[in-house]
Design a protein that fits this description.
It is a single chain. Strand 4, helix 5 and strand 5 form a beta-alpha-beta unit. By secondary structure, the protein is of the alpha/beta class. The strands form 2 sheets. It has a 7-stranded parallel sheet.
Length: 257
């Protein structure tokens, strides 16, 4: 069963005791029951305004995890893992051996392997590795439906390169006869980006994303409060959020919570 469907079912269970019972039953009968989020580095090539990596003074970069350490973690944990996210907040493509990381997880039988990336560093070689090695899902966060808004929010990114690299990934999947990785988009809602849903749909629809999540920016402690105050979704914009969902639905693009 798709990991996102399982997550949806799990979140609908409000009782923590019932959740714990389900996990214990899965463990008892030998099912994989762990969901793991793992950064293989603490680096990013962008400085997105809504991200803690934009605070250059407080972020201390950590070089990529060695393959020896990754293999040790894999041997101890991966046989129990049902869903593996090879990124939490860092950019996974800055790990030189990220393709091999995907393969090792697949070799351990992890059913669902996901990765969140800004896609700026995708190359033909990397696309072939992650497709061949069994990446299940690629998540891309995008704030804005125009080059100006996207590049302002995702500083260091390039609008045209984003779409060129997503095209490269689609072409690689077709060449290798693979349907994975599925494409998931996190569309970040700000006071500006919520007005650019229609042009964004025109850009993303040819890529047939499996689904889109509409996310409001999350205020992080000690971050750029001026940016958040100017960007956050307030109560008066809630009708615009519903309008955005309706626009995606009319374009036959699934929106998930």
């Amino acid at each position: 069963m798709n990991a996102n469907i399982l997550k949806s079912i799990y979140l609908k269970i409000k009782s923590n005791n019932l959740r714990l019972i389900i996990l214990r039953v899965m463990k008892f009968v030998g099912m994989r029951y762990l969901v793991i989020r793992l950064d293989t580095n603490f680096l990013c090539n962008l400085r997105c305004k809504m991200c803690y990596f934009s605070d250059r003074e407080k972020i201390q970069p950590i070089k990529p995890m060695t393959m020896d350490l990754y293999k040790k973690i894999a041997a101890e944990i991966f046989p129990k893992v049902r869903v593996l996210y090879l990124s939490c907040g860092a950019e996974p493509l800055l790990t030189p051996h990220i393709g091999e990381c995907v393969k090792i997880a697949k070799d351990f039988g992890v059913p669902f392997i996901s990765m969140t990336s800004n896609c700026m560093l995708l190359t033909e070689e990397l696309c072939e590795k992650i497709v061949r090695n069994g990446l299940s899902e690629l998540i891309v966060s995008i704030t804005g439906g125009t080059a100006a808004t996207y590049e302002e929010n995702h500083q260091g990114a390039n609008w045209e390169r984003l779409w060129a690299n997503l095209t490269l990934l689609e072409e690689t999947k077709k060449k290798l006869g693979c349907i994975n990785p599925e494409l998931k988009i996190n569309y970040i809602l700000t006071r500006k980006s919520i007005t650019e849903v229609e042009p964004f749909i025109q850009k993303i629809k040819p890529f047939s994303p499996d689904f889109i999540t509409l996310r409001e920016i999350v205020v992080l402690k000690n971050m750029n409060n001026e940016f958040y105050e100017a960007s956050k979704i307030t109560a008066d914009l809630l009708p615009e959020v519903e309008k955005a969902k309706a626009l995606f639905a009319s374009a036959e693009i699934s929106v998930v919570d």
